[in-house]
Amino acid sequence: MADNILEARGLSKAFRGFMAVQDVDLSIERGSIHALIGPNGAGKTTCFNLLTKFLQPSAGRIVFEGRDITELKPADVARRGMVRSFQISAVFGHMSALENVRVALARSRGGNFDFWRSERALSVFNDRAHELLYDVGLSDSVDVPAAELSYGRKRALEIATTLALDPKLMLLDEPTAGMTESDVARIVALIRQIRSGRTILMVEHNLSVVSGLSDRITVLARGRVLAEGDYASVSADEAVITAYLGSEHADA
Ligand SMILES: Nc1ncnc2c1ncn2[C@@H]1O[C@H](COP(=O)(O)OP(=O)(O)OP(=O)(O)O)[C@@H](O)[C@H]1O
């Protein structure tokens, strides 16, 4: 039997009667990179927010590491090792790359003294912060204020701050959105590098990124699971092709 780190059963979300996500079953195998794709409005973001507990489902259950997390808060699931990448807005622009990662490390230890002001307290995280910045290819930008980093490098920093929380399951929300081609290649290489020992679930629009990275793909359309499998099988699926062609703004 597959070793699934995350399972959702019958997951649904209604917004004032409109079913954005309907009866979705999802199994994420440990160690895999799993992509959630689908045309615009398919319910990917809603599904992502349900799994990370930023939204409460109207129906269904979510099990992480064998434990029902349906009623837990986002911070509780993060503490258990299911961490979503923070948005860039959560990276502090005036702080250097190193400081950003140190603060993320401090937060992950749940310290209750004033990390923000105490240089001495934060300096215990220097070595690990340098390692994480090295892992995401930012060793040359350690002292650069986050606001001055390129868009692609900000996303790399955001991934470093997520890795600081030592996730078992990392959820990436459109990791290459708005990037230049060379930044996309960097992030793809980075995701390959950080996958070791982790499971990754990502919502991604760029289908070449999806095909290059994903072990398994779930295609959503109109809030439901339309198809699931590897890239070759879902991209040859008639229903998937029709859903993409039929959507007003195909994502391909
Ligand atoms: N808070 C909300 N209130 C009402 N409707 C919502 C809300 N959030 C999402 N929806 C609707 O639910 C549907 C699914 O939206 P969702 O953002 O999950 O799709 P998506 O697949 O992520 O789309 P995109 O690729 O465009 O980001 C859409 O029709 C959207 O308008």
TrEMBL record:
A GO MF annotation of the entry reads: ATP binding
Record keywords, A-Z: ATP-binding, Nucleotide-binding, Transport
Q: One GO cellular component from the entry?
A: plasma membrane
The answer, when asked if Nucleotide-binding is one of the entry's keywords, is: yes
Judging by the UniProt lineage, the source's domain of life is Bacteria
- Give a yes or no for keyword Protein biosynthesis in this entry: no
Sequence ranges assigned to domain ABC transporter in this UniProt record: 6-247
What is the name of the protein in this document? Answer: Amino acid/amide ABC transporter ATP-binding protein 1, HAAT family
Q: Which organism is it from?
A: Acidiphilium cryptum (strain JF-5)
